Amino acid sequence: MTTAKAARDTASEASPARAPLRERLLDAAAELLEQEGVGVSTDALCRAAGVSKRSMYQLFQSKGEIIAASLERRAPQLTALLIPPPGDPVTPRERMLYVFRRLEEAAHDPGYRGCPYLSTLVELKDPEHPANVVALRQKNEMTAFFQAEAERGGAADPAFLARQLALVYDGAAARAGAGVDHLDGLAFNTASALMEAAGVRK
After folding, report:
1. What is the Cα–Cα distance from 64 to 172, expressed in whole angstroms?
2. In the chain, which ranges are continuous DSSP H helix?
């Protein structure tokens, strides 16, 4: 499933017409950002949410704030989609490989557009943009997850392995999202080989 759909499936089941304006705007932002990127216009955003610009600006000071709030709102669902729950699976190697297994499953969806946090960082050049702050925090949290598991698994250099795995994840997500490659085990096997070389065998 697409990352936006995964977030929507765990959100409120209220009909769009009855959902609070803020929720409608954030749902519309999640959908449009995945399809069109951060360059989506405020007009398109308001049309998709079924709200007026006046209502939008009563809730948010700018489109940038909406993007940031949408990314923030989706974070728990996307984390649950990619990061394994505590203790399942048990071994550090399997816990790290879980991320790449879920990535490859998501990438099979025809609507997959890659990692929304990476896309935001690439499109928005201002490091102080509120959406970039949210996106960078999420990317750092994934790298921190890799490093913690690499340490538990006895990697020779846990921090370096974590950066390697983050690079594989982002590269695979970007290529699959752009439609230039089919993963089909590519990300999973590359991550596995890196763990093996780093001494993480369990």
Report:
1. 27
2. 3-9, 21-36, 42-49, 53-59, 63-82, 92-107, 116-123, 130-152, 158-177, 186-198
30-33 contacts at long range (C-beta below 8 A, 24 or more positions apart): 30/4, 30/70, 30/73, 30/74, 30/116, 31/4, 33/4, 33/67, 33/70, 33/71, 33/116, 33/119, 33/120
* Of 10, 49, 82, the residue nearest 41 (C-alpha): 49
Contact predicate 116/33, CB 8 Å: yes
Global pTM value: 0.84
Query: Cα(49)–Cα(17) distance, rounded to whole angstroms?
Result: 9
**Residue at 88: amino acid letter:** D
DSSP-derived secondary structure for 143-164? HHHHHHHHHHTT-SSHHHHHHH
Per-residue model confidence as pLDDT tens digits over 49-102: 999 999 999 999 988 899 999 999 999 999 999 999 988 889 999 999 999 999
d(CA 149, CA 172): 20
- CA pair distance 104, 87, nearest whole angstrom: 22
The distance in angstroms from the start CA to the end CA of the chain is: 29
Contact yes or no for 68/130 (Cβ under 8 A): yes
Burial of 72 (0-12, 13-18, 19+ CB in 10 A): middle
For residues 146 and 162, the answer to whether their CB atoms sit within 8 Å is yes
Which pair of structure tokens corresponds to residue 51?
């709200």
